[in-house]
Amino acid sequence: MSGPRVVIVDDHALFRAGVRAELEGAVAVVGEAGGVEEAVARVLEVEPDVVLLDVHMPGGGGVEVIRQVALARPPTRFLALSVSDAPEDVIAVVRAGARGYVTKTISGADLAEAIRRVHEGDAVFSPRLAGFVLDAFAGALPDGPVDDALDQLTAREREVLRHIARGYLYKEIASRLGISVKTVEAHVSAVLKKLQLSTRHELSRWAVERRLVE
């Protein structure tokens, strides 16, 4: 089986089975766990590429899993998958070290893509949740330097950049802007080249630093 190696952590066995079935063929599920202690042991045992992590579990929840694993095996990439869309849950797990946060309403295909993006180093959030993260961290960032970088971008490229920073997937951006996914990819490639950046995560941070996302 190809794709990132994933451990699924959730205290509901039936939900874990459903997620495994949805991801079959897209990623390699190499382990499961139903609680904090079991999750930490399993992650240290199999060393996955990505840990798909529930937020609320007995024994401290997802934040405690991240903290314990970080002490023993840094770095590990975590993607939170939760029914909760409360700002405090999103911020807590991101501050602990998660690379992304999506809700359990996500489709199997989008979840697989989110896992791949986290594995590649991107930060991934459901669109509504991205605003929480940007609001929480923007105030701690220094004002971006005054430069002509933004002037290099076309109006359409700026639109795409803002959507990327808010956590939208390429196909979602394409739908919202009325363009094709390939056109979105071309715009992102052009923006990366003009700004001399490498990943969508870097694009998001660049946009936040310059207050381009409200």
| Largest sheet geometry | 6 strands, parallel
Proportion of strand residues: 5-15%
Low-confidence stretches: 140-147
Examine the secondary-structure arrangement and name the CATH architecture of the largest domain: 3-Layer(aba) Sandwich
Structural class: alpha/beta
What's the helix and strand layout?
Elements: E1 5-9, H1 13-23, E2 28-33, H2 36-46, E3 50-53, H3 61-72, E4 77-82, H4 87-96, E5 100-103, H5 108-119, E6 124-125, H6 127-138, H7 155-165, H8 170-177, H9 181-195, H10 200-209
Parallel strand pairs: 1-2, 1-3, 3-4, 4-5, 5-6
Helix pairs in contact: 2-3, 4-6, 7-9, 7-10, 8-9
Written overview of the protein:
With 214 residues, this protein is of the alpha/beta class. The chain has two domains: 5-138, Rossmann fold; 150-209, Orthogonal Bundle (Arc Repressor Mutant, subunit A). The protein has helices at residues 13-23, 36-46, 61-72, 87-96, 108-119, 127-138, 155-165, 170-177, 181-195, 200-209; strands at residues 5-9, 28-33, 50-53, 77-82, 100-103, 124-125. A six-stranded parallel sheet has the order 2-1-3-4-5-6, with helices on both faces. It is globular and about 50 Å long. The N and C termini lie far apart (41 Å).
